[in-house]
Amino acid sequence: MNIKSQKDFFSGLMFMGVGVAFAWGATNYTIGNGARMGPGYFPLVLGVLLALLGGIITFKALVVETVDGDKIGSMAWKPLFFIIAANLVFGAMLGGLPIIGLPPLGLILGIYALTFIAANAGDEFKFIEVLVLATILAALSYGAFILLLKLQFPVWPAFITA
């Protein structure tokens, strides 16, 4: 069988893989039913839907002819590195790293670090735009997670709040 669109084919396979993983992981929890949902119900339904969507996309990539075949390009290493690094730094700043003696630095500084590191993944970096974005994200995150949801994790570094 001939693959008509490589991008769609491998995207569909990725969706199917993630969907199956979610559905399989959901079986470790109580599923329940539609009227009385358990903690595994939503991940199971989401996983099944994602796997079905992936199957449709993969089938379409094998059957529907595209203009140029959408070949897969080279790996975008720079964006991949900065996006993963931004998430790792955010996690380390939010929770701290006791192994190296890094205390939790809080949600606000973590979001600023996340935004500034992730902004380096693009082709251009505009400091003022990134600063405005980080400020808006920090304010919205504070409002959503601290004020509305009342989650208990550090907002500021310990040396500021102490």
Automatic annotation (TrEMBL):
Which keywords appear in this protein's UniProt record, sorted alphabetically? Membrane, Transmembrane, Transmembrane helix
Residue ranges annotated as transmembrane are 9-29, 41-63, 75-94, 100-118, 130-149
List each copy of the DUF1468 domain by range: 10-154
Q: Per its UniProt record, what InterPro entries does this chain match?
A: DUF1468
Q: What is this protein called?
A: Tripartite tricarboxylate transporter TctB family protein
**Native source species:** Rhodoferax aquaticus
